[in-house]
Request: fold
Amino acid sequence: MSSFSTGALSTGAFSTGALPGAVLRQRSIARAGAIGPAALRFGRSIGSPTEGHLLGGAHLEETPYLRVAPSDAAGDVRWGLQPLVAMIDRAARQVRRQFPDAVTSVGHLSREGGGDIESHRSHESGRDADIAFFVRSGGGRQLLPKHFVPFRGDGTAASWPGAYFDDAKNWTLVSALVTDPEAHVTHLFVAAPLRARLLAYAERMGVSAGVRIRAAEVLQQPHGALPHDDHFHVRIGCPAHMSACVENPAVRAHRVPAVVARGRRAAPGHGLVTPAPITHTPSLPALPSPSRPVERRDEEPDSEPDAPPASMPVPIDDVDG
Reply:
């Protein structure tokens, strides 16, 4: 049950239920009567993801099934609208229910008050979050690196021999996000080869066409930006009646200098763009024959991989849209 204070500097807390320990802190808003009950519950997203602020956001707390990637822990960039934060917690619990030892790793959300974040061109208004891919060994054990890990379309890690993209856990996460009963996901940025891999896995597993089509709608590689081959970038839509929230960022024509972010510079020529809005339901991509599965565990070594390098080349998160 939620409890909130209307004091400007006090905080409220509410439990998300199911697994113990899932608690979200929410910054309360001064003069609550002036802004209405929806703002008290959700916080307020003001402006767009690239030019915005956050008022009264919820704080994502670590739990036994949800952690912040150590490389992104500094600065407490773990604030967002309540629907976003609660959705991430629900999705992590759903993965944990299906895979009892699973731990979901998150990166940056927004700052407590929103606004600019170094190494990002969005994440300003409490509606964006970075979620790491689930990584496994050849024997199936989950690996928990300190930072995001880039993957190729064949499921192998570009910089970490012996580590693999975990199809089952990553699809379970995607399914939980796109079917969330409260938050509405508008974008789930990921590299095109990994998008195809996830949809192929879902088809092989007999997932309903409705869920696969919904995932195909929001899974997209951003246009004119780095491909997101090392994490998911999830964005939710503006909650109803939040008039100051801007759904789609405007295209910015100016160029921004490359920023060093987690060990890799933005590639030359990567300006700021807005991904094309979805105006129709896309058809599902061509899927491989069931006789040739994407993942062939019998061809993978059973030995555990060496520890990953202390730092990996991870791209700047330069998505406008």
Q: What stands out?
A: The longest strand covers residues 231-236. Helices lie at 37-42, 82-98, 167-178, 192-204, 209-218.
